[in-house]
Amino acid sequence: MGVELYFLHWVYVLFVLLIIAMMIMKRDTSLVSIIGIAVLGLTATGSISTSIGGIFGSFIYAITELLPTILVICIIVAMSQVLTETGINESMIRPMTALIRNPALAYWVIGIVMMVISWFFWPSPAVALIGAVMLPVALRVGLPALGVAMSMNLFGHGIALSGDFIIQGAPTLTAKAAGIPVTDVIEASVPLVIVMGVVTTVTAFWLLWRDLKSGKLVVDQKAAVEQPRGNDKKRVALPTSIRRTLSILVPILFLLDVLAMFLFDLKGGDATALVGGTALVILLIVALFAHKGAGLEKTTEFLIQGFQFGFKVFGPVIPIAAFFYMGDSGFVKVFGEVLPQGSQGIVNDLGIALAHTIPLSKEVAAVTLTAVGVITGLDGSGFSGITLAGSIAQLFSHALGTGIATLTALGQIAAIWVGGGTIIPWALIPAAAICGVDPFELARRNLYPVIVGLVITTIVAMFLL
Fold this sequence. Notes:
single chain, mainly alpha, 20 helices, 76% helix, globular, transmembrane, transmembrane helix
């Protein structure tokens, strides 16, 4: 038996379509999302004052839901700032350069190191670090700067960010939009992240190796002795013994975090809190060692830099997340018990109605979620639209009766691989600048491997549903 749809449901559908249209046209979605919240409130309550107040209330609700994620990313970035300033980051990864002896090893070693660091520090702070330390070494053994940029992009902004297993920023966003635990999304994403990562990086390497052998790509040896752009930050001198000790201590502390997650079954918010607390402790210790008497003030300065970065990233996310939360439990929290009698939430109602009117198959659902992920990634953010992927996954899962976690993970992976910094030129600028390559050429090189990866990952998802 289906459910009755009211004008409120169609208003929600209309604004979802408008948001998708804005993304296709590469326009900002904040204004449409805000108007959508107000119109939903006005439709449900009939009160102008309540609908306008609901805009603010929905923002509060979205920020409250996202605050742990925002906070841990701010702290991670703040910690990364002090590690970079003191040279500890560089000392941490310099031993890995000994493994780089030929172009093939350079590609895989740089990628794997980038992936691991991105899991703990996020890709944005990792780009400058990897470029500064490993680019000259890679160039000397014959891997072009374009190959270094590809490796950093695909492993960091692709594999690490699309799974985000440690910091859990991406899966938290999509899980909340889909109305399921974040652990469900992470577990469902593991096979898809592996498939997408292996297919994409192997395809990219094969194409890169082919062009190296044919002479289409050449190494600019002159660039090997040049300092990569964007690494002129003022360094704070630390005694060598202290810097080396801290460069060993930092990864050990994070590895202990991972061990504690397994031993004590820490998941979701508990795991995020452990990582965030560890990052804060590291920030305090390093700041005090580096700045001594001024350490207290510098700690605050680093935290401010971290918060500026965090809210700059999540600023565009909050309005669209606020709108999509209105499709689920957020609507009642903001506007009260004003949904039609018998309603299970706007998205749930639409999903049930869809199940009784359209013969939706697993194949159609998987292809649609990948398409939604690609569309939401077109703005070059990767994060601004993954709440839409979670919301549509919830809608389709009600129609299919299964697969909500897999669909959510698939939409998340597609959105972040496209928009997180692998094939959208304006999202590639940091890595391109560090390596001294054209961002449009880098996007072109990444395009085919990412498309192949998305096609195969979508097919695999069909069998997992």
